Inverse folding.
């Protein structure tokens, strides 16, 4: 876990953190590489009329049926591009997918010392890092589930 | 019997058979009537399906019991979203029964009966935590999509509060009777 002291700096370790950085509505977000199950072209989702906030449809990937977490709506953004991508993430309750911008996600390695507490309130994050003037949140995927309820 | 697919047989149309997940067992099979409402595949356990008729057939039937079922036509639009099923003479109505409750739903299309193994019924992902857990009994891989298995109890309970239970004979003895009369080239 990240330290949330005044310095906002995580205690240094020697193991770098690996992230996948993607964007939704042009906003950049990060998830830990170990929590990414795959990236593929987005296929139209199948609505199920769910009342669970932000989880109202599923997608089929081969023999699996995966719930869709509508992160774009959660952040009040719109996915950009004519060919959005499907980010499959690992979640404690089972894999989920999210529709993300067509901009290809990139791998990013960061020294733990560069990770700080996320100051935003809009989404659960394990921390963040600075990219120029931007603060890129590192999503706490397990907590995404708890905020759906 | 009109069956669009069985696990024991190859079918070019049905990707459901690609699963190969379970060992076929006759004792654990389940049969579903696959319909479309607002472009979505829905599966109805044939045990809860009393028959399928067109609007024209329903209107020409003088059986008061059938008229009662028509009066209890449930619209799933509010729950499932999409647009309501338009009413044309050829629109099909699926008559449902669950315990002592009876009612019907209009559907856009009837695809046929799918027989699968119980083990091929997939649970609703646990991330779905709302009332929808009462709406569905699971999911089925169907063609290149999925069919949500409707809970007939939930469907019919939408009318249970306002309608008296009407005891009567079923309008058709079984869905099999209806199936014989339907042909859209998908019979196998």
């Amino acid at each position: 876990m990240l330290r949330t002291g005044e310095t906002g700096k995580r205690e240094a370790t020697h193991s770098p953190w690996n992230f996948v950085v993607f964007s939704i509505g042009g906003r950049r977000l990060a998830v830990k590489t170990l929590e990414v199950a795959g990236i593929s072209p987005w296929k139209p989702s199948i609505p199920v009329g769910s009342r669970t906030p932000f989880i109202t449809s599923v997608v089929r990937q081969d023999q699996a049926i995966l719930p869709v977490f509508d992160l774009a709506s959660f952040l009040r953004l719109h996915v950009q591009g004519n060919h959005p991508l499907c980010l499959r993430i690992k979640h404690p309750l089972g894999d989920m997918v999210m529709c993300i911008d067509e901009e290809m996600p990139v791998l990013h390695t960061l020294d733990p010392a560069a990770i700080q507490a996320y100051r935003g309130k809009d989404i659960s994050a394990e921390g963040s890092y600075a990219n120029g003037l931007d603060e890129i949140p590192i999503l706490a995927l397990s907590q995404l589930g708890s905020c759906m309820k | 019997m009109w069956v669009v697919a069985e696990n024991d047989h190859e079918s070019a149309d049905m990707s459901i058979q690609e699963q190969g997940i379970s060992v076929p067992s006759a004792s654990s099979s389940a049969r579903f009537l696959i319909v479309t409402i607002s472009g979505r595949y829905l599966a109805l356990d044939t045990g809860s399906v009393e028959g399928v008729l067109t609007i024209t057939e329903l209107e020409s039937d003088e059986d008061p019991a059938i008229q009662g079922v028509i009066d209890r036509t449930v619209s799933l639009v509010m729950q499932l979203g999409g647009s309501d099923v338009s009413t044309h003479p050829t629109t099909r109505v699926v008559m449902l029964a669950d315990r002592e409750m009876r009612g019907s739903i209009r559907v856009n299309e009837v695809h046929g009966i799918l027989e699968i193994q119980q083990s091929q019924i997939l649970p609703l992902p646990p991330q779905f935590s709302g009332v929808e857990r009462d709406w569905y009994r699971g999911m089925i891989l169907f063609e290149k999509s999925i069919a949500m298995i409707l809970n007939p109890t939930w469907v019919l309970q939408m009318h249970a509060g306002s309608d008296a239970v009407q005891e009567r004979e079923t309008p058709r003895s079984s869905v099999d009777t209806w199936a014989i009369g339907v042909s859209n080239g998908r019979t196998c």
